[in-house]
Amino acid sequence: MADKKLLLIDGNSVAFRAFYALYRQLDKFTSPDGLHTNAIYTFKNMFDSMLKQLQPSNILVAFDAGKVTFRTEMFQDYKGGRQKTPNELLEQLPFIKEMLEHLGVKSYELENYEADDIIGTLSKMGDEAGYEVAVVSGDRDLTQLASKHVTVYITKNGVGEMEAYTPEHMKEVNGVTPTEYIDMKALMGDSSDNYPGVTKVGPKTASNLIQQYGSIENLYEHVEEMKKSKLKENLINDKDKAFLAKKLATIDRDSPIAVGLEDTKINSVDIAGLREFYERLGFKKFLAEMSVATDGNVSSEDMQKYDYVELTSDNIAQLKLDDSEAAFYLEMLGDNYHLAQFVAFALKTSDGIYVSKDVALLEESPLKEFLQNPDIKKNVFDLKRTYIGLNRLGVQAEGINYDMLLASYLINNENNSNDLGEVAHLYDNYAVKTDVEVYGKGKKQAVPDDETLFSHLAAKVVAIDKLKPALLEELKDHEQDSLYDEIEVPLAFVLAKMEITGMKVLPTTLIQLENEFGMQLSKLEEEIYLEAGERFNLNSPKQLGHILFEKLNLPPLKKTKTGYSTSVEVLDQLRSQSKIVDKILNYRQISKIQSTYVKGLLDVVQADGRVHTRYLQTLTATGRLSSVDPNLQNIPTRSEEGKQIRKAFVPSQEDGYIFSCDYSQVELRVLAHVSGDENMQEAFNTGYDIHAHTAMKIFHLNSTDEVTPDMRRTAKAVNFGIVYGISDYGLSKNIGITRKQAKEFIDSYFEQYPGIRSFMDQAIKSAREKGYAETIMHRRRYLPDIHAKNFNVRSFAERTAINSPIQGSAADIIKIAMINMQKKLTELNLKTKMVLQVHDELIFDVPKDELEIIKKIVPEVMQNAIKLDVPLIADAGWGHSWYDAK
DNA sequence: TTGGTCACG
DNA sequence: ACGTACGTGACCAAT
Predict the structure, then answer these.
(1) What residue ranges of chain A have pLDDT lower than 50?
(2) Is the CB of A728 under 7 A from strand C?
(3) pLDDT for the residue numbered A296
(4) Can you give the residue ranges of the 5'-3' exonuclease domain (predicted)?
(5) Which CATH class is domain A669-807?
């Protein structure tokens, strides 16, 4: 702690920031009595972060006393027209003050003055008395107080982040000194405080003028010397406004405050009062923190320090591992567990907690036997990560039967996290810190000292065990036990094996493509520069927009937040207007393939000549998987150039096959099943081409023979639209018809498939009643926005309520197929490996002599994954590369 | 870190 | 009347 360091906080401003930081969680943060607490809670977090960063010896928090101040006397409309502070925030202010009192911190407000003036006055007093002064506010006005010993911190978006304004920083940002800033404001006015400055003068002009003249007084002495301009006229006309604005902008540094520096001393924390306060507001996290900080009086057993034993090769022999159940955690630094550095492990048995940084201990007796013993049930967090980490150490884990991460994802994937600490916090267990707290993030990520590390890991294994009953109970309440036990947990092992196997990629094929595409790209580049008349960065949408819409004067058809849109959608319509457009589209397409797929893929081929993706099993809102590092679920297939990439994906044996099998229209079949629509079910049961059948229906034809390719295309778009929760606008935009036509198609569709409409209505109604949408396997997606007042937000939730059960059930189905498939491969003792899943498609690496059996069993297993009211159909293809597997 | 763009189902 | 399709990940430029 610095000797004399005074922290002055702008209470209203910080509370305001705190309130809006968690505004979206407004309804989730309430006390047992129903009081909103989001601002109180965040205020405390921000306050803690200030203490940590600034280490003050003295503190005072200043508040505004009321609406009327000496400034409103000068200027009636001061802060007029400003939106009223929401009641939800106002009602929290007294509690913030109460909390500060318990914390031993003085709050102060003064009739007729704003918090700014209190801070201005105290900062002056502090400065004169030899204090280092730190001012914290969300309001940039305060930056005028900055001086050699006064630093003004302006809160940024993140809870703990602040921008430090020293006189030097002021100069960089505004070009003026803190005192000159007042004069700058005099010229600019302040729209949020509702007072005008000089007409047409903004920050730029104001800054330039003040840099030139130093103050408005001096400026107006010389104003007649300025050469004739609109600016000069405005300055002269608005002279009174400027001088008034200066008065309003100036913080009173000699206000008649009734507190002095002696009042800023920090008193001791009123522990009992604070605890009672936290309990009243339901702040479990802060309560838990208190128990640790104050030692003794530990009310929450969560916060006990755990005793652990550090395992070494010397004491390992004494380790008793005769339990039938234990918790285990293997720590690796970084997301990519295929490559991540091992840090340490922790183990919790009935005897106690054991930790060690020596992961080699896992490779030997007795830990290896323990981990490989199927009869000892292991509780973990992130089964797949654990399994693969152990696999790298030569351990084939068995008996892992509980995964806290998977369970929490199934229970509620709304506030999804892969961090054990964060998940534990969701279940009111604050005994374990988050990994970011312990290891840091980004460049600063590092392993801490042994004591910190071991305590963290000990807390982790304890939390895994401790929360297990609650999570299992909740799964049961949700009727998700079989989704968890029979789908997600077994699937995690299947995915682990797929990831470990990886897929063979031929770098030479990619390098050939790199050369070809490279030549095409340089040729296109030159041609484009020639047409444009200059060289520029083709990959910059901003620069490209400038060339197209300003230099070449093409019509800008669409805008984005930041400028002109240059997307395919726009460029496609400009094709006829300039030769350059086609070339740009062509360049874009090839450059995408080159950077993302050719170069990107080459970068991630590992030493074994394979790519090992990671499937994220606990990420998506619908239950699908996602694939990263590399993403193998978006390898090009639609364009021929892109499809070339697939030639580099080959079987592990040269004469082997890549075998691919995909479901035909799973989502529509799921829709036919869940909606019970008779016409659609009949179409699938009879084996019609569903899009042609739809075309026949919506165009009122007598037979599918009359369906033209155009009609079929339209019908296909309508079928897709239905799955997404259709709107006439969306459909019209997608297939380039009018909204009216689109509406007619949709109406006609609902007439022909009446069950679909009632399904959609029912889906929305049920989401409203239950608060979530659900798949056939009881996977949930919570939809709080279904009750939103905002039309757009609510509509989005409604479409989601329709789409999620469809997309999610399809995900359930292929997951079941994958588990059955892996089982079958093992049963039949085949060498074939399942290597990829692309949402409705499974891909296998097949030795030559297994092709025949695979052709038979894969479609069979996929088609029989689940029994629906309509048949599931899966079509297979194979070849000597992924490209040829069609 | 964010936004634009584009690859996939 | 509201403005709009559902679900993802990677790359690049600009902040």
Answers:
(1) 1, 294-303
(2) yes
(3) 36
(4) 4-267
(5) mainly alpha
Helix, strand, coil shares, percent, chain A, to 5: 55, 15, 30
Residues present in chain A in total: 886
Please provide residue A812's backbone torsions phi and psi, each rounded to the nearest 5 degrees: -55, -45
What is the SS3 assignment for A678? helix
Residue A423 CB partners (closer than 8 Å, separation 6+): A381, A404, A405, A408, A417
Domain with CATH 3.30.420.10 in chain A: 309-502
- E strands, A373-430, are 377-380, 400-403
Whole-number pLDDT of residue A297: 37
Please state whether strand C lies within 7 Å of residue A736 at its CB atom: no
For position A304, what pLDDT does the model report?
58
Torsion angle, alpha carbons of A357, A363, A368, A372, to 10:
110
Report the candidate in A18, A39, A36 with the shortest Cα–Cα distance to residue A27.
A36
Return the H-helix or E-strand segment holding A389: helix A383-392
Q: Which residues in 520-579 of chain A line strand C, with CB less than 7 A from it?
A: 537, 539-540, 542-543
The b/e string for A806-826 (b: 16+ C-beta within 10 A; e otherwise) is bbbbbbbbbbbbbbbbbebbe
Residue–nucleotide distance: A113 CA to B9 C1' (Å): 61
Q: Strand, coil or helix: what is A111?
A: coil
- Strand pairing class (A649-650; A626-628): unpaired
- Predicted local confidence at residue A157, as pLDDT: 60
| Identity of residue A624 | R
**pLDDT for residue A295:** 40
pTM of the model: 0.77
Residue A218: phi and psi, rounded to 5, are -65, -40
Place of tokens 């049963």: A827
pLDDT of residue A811: 97
Biggest alpha carbon distance in chain A? Answer: 97
- Per DSSP, the three-state class of A335 is coil
State the burial class of residue A830 (Cβ atoms within 10 Å of its Cβ: 0-12, 13-18, 19+).
Answer: middle
Q: Which of A24, A182, A42, A40 is nearest to A116 (CA)?
A: A182
Residue A561: predicted pLDDT: 83
Q: Which residue is nearest to nucleotide C5 (CA to C1')?
A: A730
- Domain(s) labelled CATH 3.40.50.1010 in chain A stretch across 5-264
pLDDT, position A160:
65
Partners of residue A147 on adjacent β-strands: A150
Nearest nucleotide, C1' to the C-alpha of A795? C4
Superfamily assignment of A511-611 in CATH? Taq DNA Polymerase; Chain T, domain 4 (1.20.1060.10)
Question: How far apart are the C-alpha atoms of A404 and A168, rounded to whole Å?
Answer: 51
**Residue A255: C-alpha distances to residues A4, A48, A251, A259 (Å):** 23, 29, 9, 11
Cβ atoms A382, A464 nearer than 8 A: no
Nearest Cα neighbor of A248 from A117, A122, A348, A359 is A117
Looking across all nucleic acid strands, the nucleotide with the smallest C1' to CA distance from residue A625 is C8
What CATH number was assigned to the domain covering residues A309-502?
3.30.420.10
- The topology under which CATH files domain A5-264 is Rossmann fold (3.40.50)
* A883 and A661 Cβ atoms separated by less than 8 Å: no
Q: Which of A153, A125, A122 is closest to A140 using CA atoms? A: A153
